[in-house]
Amino acid sequence: MLCGLTTAEAQQSPPADGEEGPRRGLLDDSTKMVYGPNTSLYFYEKYVRNNRFEKVALDTSLTGFHNYEPVADTWYTYQDLGNLGTAARPIFYEVPVQIGRTSGFHAYDLYYHSPDSIRYFDTKSPHTHIAAFFGGGNRNKLDVEFVRNIQPNWNVGIAYRTIRARKTLNPTRRDDNNVVNDSYEMHTNYVSPNGKYRLLASFTRMKHNVNEQGGIIPPDVDTTSLYFTYEDSKVWLRNSRARDLRQAYHLYQQYEIVKGWQVYQVFDKKKQEVTFFSNLGTSDSDFFNENRFNSSDSSLVHSKPDTTNNHNHYSEWKNEFGFKGDLGPVYYNAYIKLRTGRMASRFFSENNSFTELFVGGALRGEINENWIFEAEGEYLIPDGYRISGLFISPYLDVRYTKALYKPTLAQERYAGNHYRWDNDFSNIGVDQIKGTIKVNLGKSTLRPNLTVNRINNYVFYNEEQVPNQAGSEAFMVIPGFSGDLVLSGKFHWESDVRYTLITGGAADAFRIPEWFINSRIYFDGPLFDENVFVQMGLEVRYRSGNFAPAYMPATQQFHLQNEFNVYAYPVADAFLNFRINRTRVLFRYNHLNAGFMENDGYFITPGYTGLKNMLDLGISWYFFD
Hints:
By secondary structure, the chain is an all-beta fold. It has a single domain, classed as TonB-dependent receptor, beta-barrel domain (Maltoporin, Chain A).
């Protein structure tokens, strides 16, 4: 299936498959090899699969470097629980890439490096990248990556990533962590000496542990509870924890039978284990509903009356076979794909299993590097599909997507100690069109845009915290604007503004703020005879007040609620990013406007406050020996 590329990607001229790519500035004045970002290039699997092979230099830019957390890195288009590594969901509706079954446990997707996000390297020297971030209140993140070439045509890499985030609400000690994440990945890529055979392989694993808090106890429940006391807040849960364990094996290989025509195969084996534990012999039981589904055999670990011990195990196997090639300026692809999987639970009488067969293909035509059209389609036999078309020009980009996709396994069947359901939902339908007008004024870029969605049979978690299917349609019209206005060559004003209008019988199933605004203004330029490159400025974000979805830890799902208005509140952060040679450093002061507003603070999710004012520090190093 053809993956959409950005305009910048489309406008680059990639080297031929199997070639070394550009190597500029590799020799110094004494003709010695100089290793650096241009000798450690990387690429993604989609570049290989779509016959748009290119190698990208390592990122040493400063723009957005201060937004090191995964939610901030999306420029806050996700809603989380106010701390690094907590459960998160997209604010805006997204058409699923997978039209078949998924586990339905997606609260921690943002922190998992899935196989399609792996960067495969072509490096001429051992290369190490270390990025350490020390957030105020002991919100810490560390990424370590090492890659090297075994042979000129064979590269390997390994990465370790970790999060240690102390509770921002009511920590009882220095290491009273809200989130502990340990992730690693291993990958390799090989191309035969004649360039006809290529292999990409990876293994990824994430263990994400969360000590759940349930949010702040409302003052109308406990008059001694206050919302903006942070470390002194009274929270619902102290003896409840969740875990999301994921791992995946991935293999991609292709062989060129004749020039311009390749056959390929993709194999995936995935698993996800989702658990939730709560000691109901403590005050934690006050947070949950009164339903208990313990069996009469209390000797079972999941059936003790004073304990919740939910467990869901999802596993999947996938095999895809296809062919692809180029006929002049036209790329083509066709494939067949088989997926099998299951969801198992201690509370299930039998596993919830599935087998899915897909056929699909893609076409791409390039009149030149500025005029491109793409089309892709996938059919899930007999009752699911996704078709998409993309048109790229120097002035306008338009994408249309139509899909009919399956509800998740968790939405259809769930059994735990607090909630149970067994549903037979219809497939969900969506029509989406996105358009962007491209205006370039020297170094400045302006991007007016419009998104229109029509969604029917949408499945969501309702106010009772159980899945429900809307019986009518929802229509969304989302005009927006993004741009980078450059003033005097060194001052930038970047913005992302969206207005959302939702109508139709199912409009209430979507809780999207009417206004969503991000903006940053900063100085960007060299100092000290160009020995230091600096970005320094102010970033502000704003969302309209709305009844944002609440979060239920027992099921790890966000759900509708109509009682808690997450009111409008502008948040300002000051930042300083600078680079010396290949080392980047960030300073960010969060919530600069704290104490200057009508309200004492702000909420992100019902019961969960945003950060108080605090200072973050980060540093990123590259080593090439």
